[in-house]
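Help needed: design a sequence for this.
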């Protein structure tokens, strides 16, 4: 589905270096790492906001390294949702469809489908400032999904939500994924997101991926002391291992 080959990009003090990664169709992939590790830079490079200095990015069999964001069929939702405050919920959802000049009949069909899926039909005439955090999150997801992206990128989408709303959004994201069969790549700092949603995870440090694998494998077998400490594994015993014989 998504293949990244030796991608490097530097933006001031944030960078990613020599990233090689393959994400499978319908996979829920989560990227973890401390602040400044380059997680958002990587996501924005996939989306086309930044062009890599080296390396290539493929979506399916098509190389998208140099394509503009609107040509990539990739959706992105940021932590602060970035809804247009002067537009209603329905107008926010329709924005991308209008930019792409989708016929009005098709626009109405897609908007109705997403409002039903996200359970926000009753909010269509409201403005973002009148919505709760969870409602804004669902509208932002609807605005991204209405374009039917091949991949949905989520940059800390649940970090501003309270515990109960986070639990509900976990269920929502699982349901959306099953219904739309959209491949999802998410950045998070919360391990409950990982255990609830992820098929595989990657740990980033200083612009590099230092460990990649299924969730249980990474937590049970951290690659090094950094990964173990980042994952909160408290018992780290120093010693020497020798092969007997």
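Sure. Designed sequence:
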């Amino acid at each position: 589905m998504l293949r990244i080959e030796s991608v490097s990009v530097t933006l001031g003090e944030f960078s990613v270096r020599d990233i090689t990664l393959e994400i499978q169709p319908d996979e829920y992939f989560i990227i973890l790492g401390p602040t400044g590790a380059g997680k958002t830079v990587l996501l924005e490079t996939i989306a086309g906001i930044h062009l890599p200095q080296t390396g290539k990015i493929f979506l399916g069999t098509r190389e998208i390294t140099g394509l503009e964001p609107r040509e990539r069929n990739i959706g992105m939702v940021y932590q602060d949702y970035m809804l247009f405050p002067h537009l209603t919920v329905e107008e926010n959802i329709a924005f991308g469809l209008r930019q792409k000049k989708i016929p009005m009949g098709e626009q109405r069909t897609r908007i109705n489908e997403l409002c039903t899926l996200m359970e926000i039909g009753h909010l269509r005439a409201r403005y973002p400032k009148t919505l709760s955090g969870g409602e804004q999150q669902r509208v932002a997801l609807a605005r991204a999904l209405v374009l039917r992206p091949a991949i949905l990128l989520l940059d800390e989408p649940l970090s501003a939500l309270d515990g109960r709303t986070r639990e509900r959004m976990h269920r929502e994201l699982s349901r959306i994924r099953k219904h739309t069969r959209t491949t999802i790549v998410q950045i998070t700092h919360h391990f409950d997101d990982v255990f609830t949603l992820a098929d595989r995870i990657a740990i980033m440090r200083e612009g590099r991926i230092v460990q990649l694998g299924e969730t249980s494998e990474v937590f049970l077998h951290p690659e090094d002391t950094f990964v173990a400490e980042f994952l909160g594994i408290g018992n780290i015993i120093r010693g020497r291992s020798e092969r007997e014989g």
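The first strand starts at residue 2 and ends at 11.
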